[in-house]
Amino acid sequence: MTTEMQEIAITEDKPLLTGQADTAKDAEVAAMILLDQGQEHSIETPHGVLHVTLHGTRTTRRPAILTFHDVGLDGKSCFSPLFKFEEMQEIVKNFTVIHVDAPGQEEGAAAYPPGYQYPCMDTIAEMISSVLQFFNIRTVIGVGVGAGAYILSKFTLANPDAVEGLVLINIDINARGWMDWAAQKLSSVTHTFTEQILSHLFSQEELSSHTDLVQTHRERIHKASNLVNIELFWKSYNSRRDMSIDRNSTFKCPVMLVVGDQSPYEEAAVECNSRLDPTTTSFLKMADAGGLPQLTQPAKLTEAFKYFIQGMGYMASSCMTRLSRSRTTSLSSSVSMDGSRSRSRTLSQGSQGGQMPPSPSQTMEVSC
After folding, report:
1. Could you say which of 14, 271, 291, 353 would form a disulfide bridge with 313 (CB–CB 3.0 to 4.6 Å)?
2. What crossing angle do the helices spanning 212-222 and 193-201 adopt, rounded to 10°?
3. CB 303 within 8 A of CB 284
């Protein structure tokens, strides 16, 4: 184990933080990031217009962080709590961040006219190339949730050289089966469209508890001026095709799968993990995270994201604060295809911060 970490430290060749940071300057930068509303762009693509919000300074030296939201959300409501989180600023100040909204999903978007042909998931994935070209960005680290995770996965499979890493939250790579279709038909009769989307986004426990987060999104979706657009996006996602991946034909970049332990998509994420390359995939199952861990557990997800980026060769001198202080987290390699488990490794030892993370070339299952 010690040898592996030494090797990572030796081969790390893209450090972002090289010396002791100036506290006053860091505070000023953090304040600027928190106040930054981003630069909004409407980008023409061969298949329509995408609304995109860019944060930070464009640079070709490092990959941009490109996000894609889930159904019923947009870039702002899906990711702002995470990317505005205090400890995330260490990452944000060093990368360009691009939030991509699916067609017609941005806040205040005009409703599409009756009969509008909404693009399928594959077509939306193709539109991302135009975003990279617009900003002259060569590579990205993708962060997607639900439908956004599926879309970024399709983009990565079609453009492996454009993606350096993937963080996929609540990923479901399977098409909806007949049982899912029947359940959806029944739900459409017994529940309003808003409640259908909430059942997609949140765990049953969260819905039963009527948490503030659920109530906030219920009101936001119900009052949305582009509700018809959200419904079109929902239908497009439910019409997705099976993603043809297995351990011999999969992503070429490191992947971190994330799911809450009570998420509606926990089983789907576990299945996806079983079909990915175990040498480049890590699996993070988050306790008490509900259906949207980026909103309910931003601290844990931020820490995991830092480790993921470190494993890719960035931010080598970043101090791993919260997880390192709290406790030792056990990392076990994921279940193999025959159901067996292999070796176990430790993410951080004791209260020592600043250690190099495990290499992404080890498949890990993390429960935190």
Report:
1. 14
2. 140
3. no
> What does the DSSP assignment read for 12-28?
--B-S--SPPPHHHHHH
User: Which residues are 137's β-sheet partners?
Assistant: none
Burial class of residue 3, CB neighbours in 10 A (0-12, 13-18, 19+)? exposed
Other residues' Cβ atoms within 10 Å of the Cβ of residue 207: 18
Name the CA radius of gyration of the chain, rounded: 20
- Per-residue pLDDT for 133 more than 50? yes
- The first and second tokens of residue 294, run together, are 């980026």
Average pLDDT taken over every residue of the chain: 80
Helix axes 227-238, 212-222, angle to 10 degrees: 110
56: Cβ–Cβ under 8 A, 6 or more apart, which residues? 36, 92, 93, 95, 96, 97
The greatest distance separating any two alpha carbons of the chain, rounded to the nearest whole angstrom, comes to 62
User: Helix axis angle, 227-238 relative to 147-158, nearest 10°?
Assistant: 60
Distance CA 263, CA 290 (A): 5
CA–CA distance, 156 with 125 (Å, rounded to integer): 9
Backbone angles phi, psi at 58, to 5 degrees: -65, 135
pLDDT given for residue 341 in this prediction: 33
**Predicted confidence (pLDDT) per residue in 320-331, tens digit:** 554 444 433 333
For residue 190, count CB atoms less than 10 angstroms from its CB and return exposed for 0-12, middle for 13-18, buried for 19 or more: exposed
Amino acid identity, residue 50?
L
Task: Supply φ then ψ for residue 247, to 5 degrees.
Answer: -70, -15
Query: Within 13 Å and on the Cβ side, how many CA atoms surround 341?
Result: 9
Q: What is the 3-state composition of the chain as percent helix, strand, coil, each rounded to the nearest 5?
A: 40, 15, 40
pTM of the full structure: 0.80
Looking at residues 156-175, what average pLDDT do you find? 96
Q: Is beta strand 39-45 parallel, antiparallel or unpaired with respect to 48-55?
A: antiparallel
What is the DSSP code string of 71-117?
TT--HHHHHHHHHTSGGGHHHHTTS-EEEEEPTT-STTPPPPPTT--
